[in-house]
Amino acid sequence: MAELTPLPIACALTPDAARERIGWLEHVGRSALIEGGREGDRLLLRFRAESRRDVEAFISAESECCRFLSFDLGEAGGELTLEISGPAGAEPVLDGFLSTLGGQES
What we know:
By secondary structure, the protein is of the alpha+beta class. 41% of the residues lie in helices and 26% in strands. It has 3 helices and 4 strands, in the order H-E-E-H-E-E-H.
């Protein structure tokens, strides 16, 4: 069986696209984030249920440019739950999301 090559921990966005994405994520955080925090290699986020479209757009966009991350969206207690995880070394990326969204860093 062939060995899987790990994906590089790198964002595929251009600088201009990254600035635009950061502005959009700040908006999503202000309007929809209830709580967020990081536990090791996982980012745990809770969003208002009515923000599903924005959260799904966030997952879709970030899945394209940060292919090394995994996203798991759920719903509990009338809120959306999003777990983002990555390989060892992805912690700065997770912390960047958390900071941009306005959550609490670990």
